Amino acid sequence: MLLSNCQKNPANDNELTAGAQMSGRVLLSEGATPSDVYVWLDGTSFATYTGQSGEFQINLPPVAPNVLVGASVHSLYFYLANYQLSSVDLAIRDGKFLYSRGGLNSRGELNNTVSLLKRLHIETTVTPAEIAGDYQGPMNVQLSLSAAGDSVTVLFPENESPALFFKQKETGAVFSYALTVNPAARDSIKIGQEAYRRSMTLNFTPDYLPQGSYEVVPYFLIVPEKVLPPGLLPSLGDAVENFSANFLKIPTKRTGGQLVVKSSE
């Protein structure tokens, strides 16, 4: 756990109600399911994800007074890679949230529901979408990107060969497919409201994937609208922007990409 930078003294009133718990709710534009939004308290390792209805709760542990010493204001960030970043300022004193200050009401709840605006639509189509375990042949993965409003810059690996992840839904196991990926060499593409499509074909070999249901995720990075807080991505995991299973720790809302591997007959 990291000690945050104190931005200002939020209160000198010792009679303010304080508590180790705060809660709130997040909604997404276009009616998307508001689950799995990453909620992170700046300058700390305290984070959580929203539930199916967008609700979340952060509980500061008993050690928090030793980490969050004195009085300060911290930003609580709400992050999805293809949505606009949002934040709320919270007042904290000696490891407890100060209620009725900053963005909290007297019960430790956010005064307002947090709304995130989508920046980028991401849709993946897999053909064939169902294969046997001993399937050998081509598989096409088509990625469709379009901006919800202003243009969005994305970064692909410099070579145009497929770079993909297969995440098994039953176990969470991640399998990757790529020839070469140089993390220092990337192509920058500006995405507008007209769909940009990228087709990737791979040669599937027998028994490459165990039987199960998968989400197929093409590897690319979304350039944020504004610079992210320095500790946000590291709080998700090590080197999450590199081509590794940790990339899937970056919270992103996608559609499609379904693949089923059946038993061989």
Describe the structure in your own words.
There is one protein chain. This protein is mainly β. The chain folds into 2 domains: 18-116, Immunoglobulin-like; 120-262, Immunoglobulin-like (Sandwich), CATH 2.60.40. It is 3% helix and 43% strand. It contains 2 helices and 21 strands. It has helices at residues 64-67, 232-236, and strands at 18-19, 21-28, 38-41, 47-49, 55-59, 71-79, 86-93, 96-98, 114-116, 120-127, 130-132, 137-147, 152-157, 163-168, 174-178, 186-191, 196-204, 212-218, 221-222, 255-256, 258-262. The strands form 5 sheets. A 6-stranded antiparallel β-sheet has the order 1-8-7-6-3-4, with no helix packed on it. A hairpin with a 5-residue loop joins strand 14 and strand 15 (174-178). The longest helix is centred in the C-terminal third of the chain and has 5 residues, at 232-236. It is elongated and about 65 Å long.
Per CATH, the class of the largest domain reads Mainly Beta
Radius of gyration: 21 Å
Strand order of the largest sheet: 1-8-7-6-3-4
**pLDDT < 50 runs, ≥5 residues:** 1-11
Jot down its keywords:
265 residues, mainly beta, 2 domains, six-stranded antiparallel beta sheet, five-stranded mixed beta sheet
Give a summary of the structure in a few sentences.
This protein has 265 residues and is mainly beta. The protein has two helices and 21 strands. The strands form five sheets. A six-stranded antiparallel beta sheet has the order 1-8-7-6-3-4, with no helix packed on it. A five-stranded mixed beta sheet has the order 11-21-18-14-15, with no helix packed on it.
